[in-house]
Design goal:
Number of strands: 0
Strand content: under 5%
Structural class: mainly alpha
Largest sheet: none
Helix content: over 70%
Shape: rod-shaped
Radius of gyration: 34 Å
């Protein structure tokens, strides 16, 4: 009976040791995952700042008009509505022609 008791205690201790090792491995894996998520968050934060800078540039009506003039873009639809850019009440073709120095008589 004494041998059975010793084997039982050893089995319980082995099971407990395996549980501790398994939990340590899980904690380590969660730590690696947490570190990867932190790096991803930093990358996304930098990307968000970059996008905000680009949006800030695009919100400037003067910058947009300058780009239209510089690149010689031909806009196809008139700008209208509550989000219209100030100074773009005329047809876009008229703006482009005016920017290029071509007089516009109002006809297409």
């Amino acid at each position: 009976m004494n041998v059975v008791r010793i084997l039982y205690v050893e089995a319980v201790l082995t099971a407990l040791a395996l549980c501790v090792v398994w939990q340590a491995a899980e904690v380590r894996k969660a730590g690696y995952r947490l570190e990867a998520l932190r790096r991803e968050r930093e990358r996304r934060t930098a990307e968000l700042q970059s996008y905000r800078a680009h949006v800030g540039k695009l919100k400037s009506p003067q910058r947009i008009l300058h780009l239209v003039e510089t690149l010689g873009l031909r806009l196809t639809e008139p700008v209208a509505g509550p989000n219209a850019i100030p100074g773009l009440e005329r047809e876009p073709e008229a703006l482009v022609q005016t920017a290029q120095g071509t007089p516009h008589d109002g006809t297409h």
